[in-house]
Specification:
Distance between the termini: 68 Å
Pfam families: Cation_ATPase, Cation_ATPase_C, Cation_ATPase_N, E1-E2_ATPase
Radius of gyration: 36 Å
CATH topology of the largest domain: Calcium-transporting ATPase, transmembrane domain
CATH architecture of the largest domain: Up-down Bundle
GO molecular function: ATP binding; ATP hydrolysis activity; ATPase-coupled monoatomic cation transmembrane transporter activity; P-type ion transporter activity
CATH superfamily of the largest domain: Calcium-transporting ATPase, transmembrane domain
Number of domains: 4
InterPro entries: ATPase_P-typ_cation-transptr_C, ATPase_P-typ_cation-transptr_N, ATPase_P-typ_cyto_dom_N, ATPase_P-typ_P_site, ATPase_P-typ_TM_dom_sf, ATPase_P-typ_transduc_dom_A_sf, ATPase_P-type_domA, Cation_transp_ATPase_P-type
Number of helices: 30
Strand content: 15-25%
Family: Belongs to the cation transport ATPase (P-type) (TC 3.A.3) family. Type IIA subfamily.
Shape: elongated
Subcellular location: Cell membrane
Length: about 900
Amino acid sequence: MNPHQRDIERLYAHLRSGADGLTQAEAKRRLARYGPNRIEKIAEQPLVIRLLKEFTHFFALILWLAAGLAFFAEWREPGQGMATLGYAVLGVILINGLFSFWQEYRAEKALAALRNLLPQHATVLRDGKAVSVPAAELVPGDVVLFTAGDDVPADSRLIEAFGVRVNTATLTGESKPMARDVTATAEELAALRRDILHAGTSLISGEAKAMVYATGMHTEFGNIARLTQTLHEPLSPLQIEIARMSRLVAMFSILLGVLFFLIGQLVGLSFWANLLFAIGIIVANVPEGLLPTVTLSLALATQRMAKKNALVRHLPAVETLGAATVICSDKTGTLTQNRMSIRQVFYSGALLTPNELIAADPLFAVMRNCLDLRRVEQNGQSVWQGDPMEVALLESVPPGVASFPRLDEIPFDTERKRMSVICDTPQGHTLYCKGAPESVLPLCDAMLQDGNVIPLDEAGRGHLSGTQDQMAAQGLRVIALAYRALPQHDAHRETELVFAGLIGLVDPPRPGVTEAIGTCHAAGIRVIMITGDHPHTAGALAREVGLAQNPVAVTGDKLRVMSDADLQLLLDEPGLIFARTSADQKMRIVQALQRRGDIVAVTGDGVNDAPALRCADIGIAMGIAGTDVAKEAADIILLDDHFATIVTAIEEGRAVYDNLRKFLTYILTHNVAELVPYLAFALFKVPLPLTVIQILAIDLGTDTLPALALGAEKPDRDIMLRPPRLPSERLLSWGLLLRVYLFLGLLEAVAGMAAFFFVLHSGGWQFGSALGAHDNLYLQGTTACLSAIVVMQMVNIFLCRHPSLSAFSRGHRFNRMIVYGIVFELVLISLIVYTPWGNALFGTAPLAAEVWLFLVPFGIGLLLLEEGRKALVRGMVRRNAAESVAR
């Protein structure tokens, strides 16, 4: 059935109803058959399954394996501290999983209001009488009565309509209120059907009677909600990269374990001793602190973004936004303020701004009286409700312009495209008229010029027509105003009007949007407008905000007949914008961009935006003007609805990726220093310089807060002058691995081994001599190795703040958390070394002052060598840049 194409009588017959609606008994039967009129949420995964997923992703499985191996080693050889390691790793898995689940569950519950968009009650005809019923009880065949300000609870076909205009912005993105009447239409695009009221829209003005033909999930709103809920959310780039990194860590750890097992066999270790040794190698190379550090770093970033009015629902979304290469932006309410304002006025033969409009009493009288607004209470304030265009007219009228008693009204309708009112003024009955220029100007035979009424000849009409075209070319919505003194008993009231002026209105850009788009362009991020609005309006806004100087507007009609291959070619077009698009078309554009390899961010606030928000790599909804459906589908909510906030969020997202690399460099550096002692133990038959429990003290103890401090680094000043990182760029790059494993890590390992042998030789140990596991000299030696790694990491944290800039150049970017991290390291290592419980738990012994003095040159050496490496890198970059300029 196509209710928009049927005449009323055929619709009555099809729905077995009539102009007086249904009986209560029939409505009850239909409710049992069709179900309640509400949006049903498709069954989600049970909370238990969602919680279990936090414990079964790849890196968590690696930690489970490490814990299992640790318990196995403890079973084979008790007393080596492996059980403590196993319990600690289990604690990491548990705490990280619960924290991640809680973060996202809390955000989900804060925004789970999908069903609240539809109105709670509706006035319907039951048994021929108007009654108020819960909107959930509406059924097909019900006749609903509407007045201005009412929300539409279900898809309905108009039976009667008087001056009806509907706000469809939440469903279509169209900022201009749309007229609706009872005329059947052949229009296939649901949003443009003139005789249909769709669920989720609202009446701006007029009165109507309409018959419900679809409820709940069968409405257009329900179709969009279903599409939104069934879409599979793609993995974020960070999730993909961490999964890849987890595989690398697992393979590297197992490879080293096998290699050291073979080495142990060659040097004559027994099978079980060799196996336990290999297990120790594997566990030592699994960075147990990586997962909680990444999670906490993302959580800290969400807190910083919340302070900047960006609420993050899913933790990985923080970093994904920083990787965005394209932003597909809605227009109404996102780039614009979603309210009309007067941009230009043509009065007395001149084009003026509103501020230049003075001594225009006849024009102000039309603007003040030819309105259909009412006062309502909203959030504790009295505001005007009605057509935003009329609100803009009223707000532009100077104080003191009189409002006259209304005697009669000729309401707006789509055929006449104008509205007139008759008022009782001190000069007698006066008619005020406003409407489309093509409707009002033919009724005028005079115009105002320098305060005088002069005849309107053909030359004058031509001038007005040219002025109208000039204003429309700027993307303005143009309306004409006119008036006349009305003789009593005049049957031809809308004739012989006096033209008062043209008003050019616009939905103005949000403050800061132009600068934000400029920043996006400088950062190599493409911005594409996708709107349900008119292409002329969209093009004018694109030029105004610097989106495109010569915008190429593609409408939904063109897109509908375009093949996927043609769309891929079209996406290469600079200055591209899409207008008059539907929800599925917006989603198609996003998917086409993703197939090109783009990381796509989508902004929106309406129901029509929800599918695109869901399928995008990063969905961004407006927090104030956004519908609950859009917020439900989004990853990030802009609490201030400001497009410029996106730029701040992108900057934060890019900083997150940079910071992930920084603390990866930091925490992986000590892996080498932890690995070399095992290598020395196997190859050179020396006592094991670092025990498993001491490795745990570093991974989950001393290094945690400093690593988080690097995760809280502020964005670099040039971060928004760089292009987005390439999709092929890896978090664990070869450059990072070489720097960690062949430079920083080796230097730390040298310091650790030097400290170990310094203590042993100071105590009289000779190479080849045996030392018991509980010998005080051996305990002091392992403590020295542990302390050396911690001291080197205190220096390393400053070196890791930037891969090429000097640590001394970062002084102006003070990071208080780094100071806290170093203090935390000092306190913790002091407790481990100098307290009885620390000695007992970690197998340590107090160190003499000369050991700490022995470590100082190694810290200075690490600093100087890394600063030298950075200087070489900077020099190479400068030379390459100079050569590029020369070429």
